[in-house]
Amino acid sequence: MTVEERPDQFTNTSKADFKSIYNQPDPRSYFKTLAPLQYQIPQQALPFVESLLENMSLGTEKADSRDFAKPRKVLDVCCSYGINAALLRCDLTFDSLESHYASSSMLSVREQVASDCRLFGSQLRRPDVEVLGLDVSPEAINYAVKTGLLKDGFAENLEISEPSVHFRDALRDVELVICTGGVGYVGLETFSRIAAAVEDTSNLWMATFVLRVFSFDDVSSLLEEKYGLITEKVPGRLFRQRTFASREEQKAAIADVRARGLDSQGLEDNGWFYAECYVTRPKAATLQMDDVLKGLVRE
C-alpha cells in the first residue's frame, strides 16, 4: 500500500485516492491507473536496495559467520502486488511489467495469474533472495504469493495490532526491511513491531523511501532509542515517485513540503512527488553508508 490509498494521512486535503486499485486479484488496474502518472519509484529504488543487500553484511559483527548458502530474507512493507520483489528477484523492469499487463487486458484473472507465474519463473535471476510481504490488502498479498513473487505474505495492520504468530516467526531472521511508499500510512507502531520481532537487530538494515510531505524523524528516533539502529538520509539524491493527479493535489503537497521547512522549487513545483531515502543500520556496523552507496548518489 502507498499513500495514494490513504489521502487522509496528508496534512492537507485534495489528494488523489486510488484505494480501488490496490485490492484487486491481479495488478492490471494498478498499472493502468498509475502509468499515465509516470509512477516509477520502485525502479528508482532498486539500485539502492540491491547495493544494500550485497554490501550490508560486510559491515556487521557477524559478517564472517554468515551462511552464504542460506537465502537472504527481505521484508517489503506495504508491498501491494509484490512489485519490488519482481524487480529484485527477476530480470524485469517496471516498464516491462507495465507493458506485460497492458498487453493482457482480455485474459481472465486465472489466465493472468498463470501467465504471470510463467513470466516470473522464466525471468528469475535472484533465487538467493526471499521476499516477505506486508500489506493490508489481502487480494494483493494473495496474488504476490500465488505468482511466487513473495515467499510468504501477511495481510495485517501493525499500526493497530501485534503481528500474528506466523508473521512474528517469519520476521525472526529478516535482514533487510524495505518500504518504497508506505510511510504516511504506516509509522512508529509498524516499524517498532517489526524490529521487536527480529531476533538479532545487530544484523538488521532498512531502506525506507519517504515522500517529502512526511517526516521520518519520529521513526528514526524510536529505532535508535529502542533497538540501537542508526538512520541516515542518503545525501544528494531525491527520488521521483509520480506526477500529481491534479492541480489540487499539487497545491496540497507543496503546502505540506513547505510546512516542513523544505523548498519545493524545481521539485514539487514542477509537478512531481519526490521521496528521500533513509538507510537504517546497526549502531555497531563498521561499513559506512558512502561505501554501500558508492557510485549511486549523483553529486
From TrEMBL:
Taxonomic source organism: Colletotrichum trifolii
Protein origin, superkingdom: Eukaryota
Protein name in the entry: Methyltransferase type 12
